[in-house]
Design goal:
six-stranded mixed sheet, 39% helix, elongated, 511 residues, alpha+beta
């Protein structure tokens, strides 16, 4: 007979939420895995002793972690989703008939808590990963990726020139009554003039290129900013359109892929400039867990002479490919380390003369020969045909560059490159596609840093729940048969058929 289910919508008199959630459920195991009580002490100073009770700090952090685990970016959708899940209600500590917090309460609480509380939660989860054996600590892979900001590129505004201070005013600024009303974001006038001239030159280019620039809106971080999110920066990734982004920089342990450090940076600067702060935070966390960093893996975006020297000073081997057309040796010239000078093919000496800096602030060492040596040299037409003397420019960190270049050419350097690609790049793919890091739901640099910390915490918690330590297998040894049985009779008399090897091993293990 065909069955038909009738829905009566009756009121249930006996219902226990814990009985409806199975023991192997993700959120039930997560509630038992982490001790969340330390968050009360971390946030106690942020609340007053009087007034209405606020949102429970533990409930807040559990709620936002659910948003990362469920790949939900919007707070409004997060609250609606949690109200429909019995396991999440049990994880949050709410009954079925209790109202969840408003989405605006979650947003205000996120702004109330400083980034130090989020970092404390990250350290707590990371310490548990270390205790379970998921983190080796000796080898770390570093990388960065842009994350779309909560702002539109169509709403950017032009920066105004900074007001010039008169000679009768001090460096403290204008008097209060004479302070002009200027936008929050300003830029030096000479940078604005230089950028305007550059854009005018691009529009005046002949052919279809100039016509294309004439119709396009030329945007730059030097001339434009976002009033919605002033900390967002205009950046571009190869193969993708230009957008307002934040930069996510993280370090991943190569043992089991646990995130060991994460931070938010500005997206308009190079990765190498954020590396010293990343290294300091990473080493601080590893030292707190009694781990030592020995090898660091990164791509060519972190190649910098000061970074190489910094890693060598701290006893860390840098597996970072040398960026650009760096040459360890100059063709036709030999370097004398004792005299700090170069010798050319004709035997002339090019001693060290002075230090210099590039437009980016990198230090250089300048070597040149005397004009008399070059004018009387027979190799001058091929060596320096249009100059009076030969001049060589080398970086101040030439020795660390050379050592990094030699490591890059070695077989171990090629293997380390594959290890980095197989460690940190899949982590970024998971964070962006499965943990809600495809777009920011907050604004500002501090908010982006908190969101990245929560995403990394959710990722490490998932790693912690899935990890099962390998148990040591017992080894079965086949013993030789005795010549005589225990009763003194021959073993071969009235013997049973020989058992297979697996049966003997099973019998030995049962003893």
């Amino acid at each position: 007979m065909q069955g038909k289910k009738l829905f009566l919508d009756k009121e249930v008199t006996r219902f226990r939420l814990s009985e409806r959630v199975r023991p192997h459920n993700l959120y039930r195991r997560l509630a038992e895995l982490v001790d969340w009580s330390f968050l009360y002490e971390e946030t106690r100073a942020l609340y007053s002793r009087t007034g209405q009770p606020s949102l429970d700090p533990v409930v807040f952090f559990k709620l936002v972690l659910v948003g990362r685990l469920e790949n939900l970016v919007s707070d409004r959708r997060l609250v609606e989703h949690c109200a429909l899940r019995l396991d999440i209600l049990l994880f949050l500590g709410y009954e079925v008939d209790e109202e969840l917090p408003w989405h605006s309460t979650v947003s205000r609480t996120r702004q109330l808590f400083p980034a130090a509380v989020f970092e404390r939660l990250f350290d707590h989860v990371f310490a548990q990963c270390v205790a379970r054996g998921l983190v080796a600590g000796d080898t770390q892979a570093v990388d960065s990726a842009p994350v779309k900001a909560n702002a539109s590129l169509d709403s950017v505004a032009e920066k105004q020139a900074q007001p010039a201070l008169g000679p009768h005013l001090s460096g403290a600024g204008l008097p209060h009554r004479a302070t002009p009303t200027v936008p929050l974001i300003t830029a030096p006038a000479h940078e604005l003039r230089r950028e305007a001239a550059r854009q005018a030159k691009r529009r005046s280019e002949p052919g279809p290129v100039g016509a294309q620039h004439e119709k396009a809106r030329l945007l730059s971080n030097k001339t434009h900013y976002s009033p919605t999110d002033p900390d967002a920066r205009i950046s571009i990734k190869p193969g993708k359109a230009r957008a307002l982004n934040h930069l996510c920089s993280l370090a991943v342990d190569t043992a089991h892929g646990v995130i060991s450090h994460v931070q938010a940076d500005f997206a308009d600067s190079r990765d190498s400039l954020h590396f010293p702060r990343l290294l300091a935070g990473l080493q601080r966390r590893l030292r707190g867990c009694e781990l030592r960093l020995r090898d660091l893996l990164a791509d060519a975006g972190y190649a910098n002479g000061s970074n190489y020297a910094l890693l060598e000073a701290r006893g860390v081997t840098a597996w970072i490919p040398v960026f650009g057309q760096y040459k360890a040796e100059i063709e036709g010239f030999t370097y004398d380390a004792q005299q700090d000078a170069y010798h050319c093919r004709a035997g002339k000496v090019l001693p060290f003369r002075k230090y210099d800096t590039t437009t980016d602030g990198h230090w250089l060492k300048i070597y040149w020969a005397t004009c008399q040596d070059c004018q009387q040299c027979a190799l001058k037409p091929t060596c320096v045909p249009g100059a009076k003397r030969k001049q060589l420019t080398r970086t101040l960190y030439d020795a660390p560059y050379c050592r990094a270049w030699q490591r890059q050419q070695s077989r171990r350097g090629q293997r380390m490159r594959r290890v980095r690609q197989g460690t940190v790049e899949p982590v970024f793919g998971n964070l962006i596609h499965h943990y809600g890091l495809r777009r920011m739901n907050v604004r500002g640099h501090a908010g982006a840093h908190k969101t990245m910390l929560l995403t990394a915490v959710a990722y490490n918690l998932k790693k912690l729940l899935k990890y099962w330590p390998q148990r040591q297998r017992s080894l079965a040894v086949a013993l030789p048969r005795p010549l005589l049985a225990p009763n003194g009779h021959s073993w071969r008399r009235n013997r049973r058929p020989e058992a297979p090897t697996w049966a003997i091993q099973k019998r030995l293990l049962s003893i």
